[in-house]
Amino acid sequence: MSSILDVARIKRDFPIFQAEMRGGKRLVFLDSGATSQKPIQVMDAEREFYSKHNAAVHRGSYYLAEQASEAYEGARARVAAFLDVSAEEVIFTKSATESLNLLAVSFERSTGMLGINAGDEIVVSELEHHANLLPWQQLAKRTGAVLKWFEMNPDGSLDLSDIDRVITPRCKVVAITHLSNVLGSVPDIAPIIAAAHAVGAVFVLDGCQSVPHQPIDIATLDIDFLVFSGHKALGPTGIGVLWGRAQLLEQMEPYLYGGSMIETVTMTGATWASAPKKFEAGVPNMAQAVGLAAGLEYLSEVGLPSIHNWEMQLTDHAIRGLNSIEGVKVIGPQGIENRGGVISFVIAGLHPHDVGQVMDQYGVAVRTGHHCAWPLIRKLGLAGTTRASFYLYNEMADVDVFLESVIGARDYFGKR
Known about the structure:
This protein is α/β, with parallel strands linked by helices. The chain folds into two domains: about 5-30 and about 305-410, Aspartate Aminotransferase, domain 1, CATH 3.90.1150.10; about 45-300, Aspartate Aminotransferase, domain 2, CATH 3.40.640.10. Helix content is about 40%, strand content about 15%. It has helices at about 5-10, 40-55, 65-85, 95-110, 135-145, 165, 190-200, 220, 245-250, 285-300, 305-325, 350-360, 375-380, 395-410; strands spanning about 30, 90-95, 120-125, 145-150, 170-175, 200-205, 225-230, 240-245, 260-265, 270, 330, 340-345, 365, 365-370, 385-390. A seven-stranded mixed β-sheet has the order 2-8-7-6-5-3-4, with helices on both faces. Helix 2 packs antiparallel against helix 10 (about 285-300), helix 3 packs parallel to helix 10 (about 285-300) and helix 12 packs across helix 14. The longest helix is centred in the N-terminal third of the chain and has 21 residues, at about 65-85.
């Protein structure tokens, strides 16, 4: 495969790459799994909103308020187009974490097929980020529901050999990551979705590590809910997305109460507006939504298939390089099949935090620790890992510096 991205041109759109790191080193940013860098187009979109259109959306009949509302709803339409769904199915939150908590709280308050009661079952996996574990774990504790999970195989895949035992007729919700933020592994979700729907359960997909990096076909996946974070998709912090099937959103109870989410209010009761307004109480993150729309537009113009293809080239080069370094072990998939551009590794005898500090001297920014996935790290029998994650603004030279810094960390501590 050859590169089909003009990374040099792309990098010019990201002002942060002009910054100098320690010792005058250039920035080699390999922590996009935690948060992405922002192109000038996103910054300009937010700046333009605040400088030309700033007003509370859906609240005024004056010109600025109309412009602000148009910009905000235009951002919703942009997200809908990106996902190829109806705009009425797109809910803005402050993060994917809030999106998942919204679902858990709403299911607790709802009745019928979405209501969670004592004895019902909720299914997750050992691959989950805390954001897709704790809301369901705590929901089970509050309601008396039973939390179950798929275990992880040594290669980072999920063990589906007993899928009928994990997903039973008592199951109401299945929530699984689309791509592990620790291992980069892509679980086989198709049979899980089919099993969930066979017993009448809904399927929630955590798309934080996949939606910004590869094309997602919601219709083909046949999922019921999808969440992702704006700040991992070139957008600002403080904005997240929840997509849900319209018929399910209408059955759900609100998560927050306040202005804009009501149909009628008296001193003794209220009725709710239809989705998405029902789930967007208060003045929303308007400029952040506009910034997210600009980020998604940028990704669409570059092309998600091209981005994914390039990330896999970077990942292949990195894995091959790591596997050639004595004392280094890649954790999870050893190739680029069924994986994304996230690589975790350990250096024998070294704590990940020490490794990351030495790599920082080379200008290399990586994540170290448990990656908000303690159960997974414990399952691996590790204290943590060092993690590199790639994006459209990384180049092959970044991987070479990364590999040099890994060798430097190993040798610095005399672990060769």
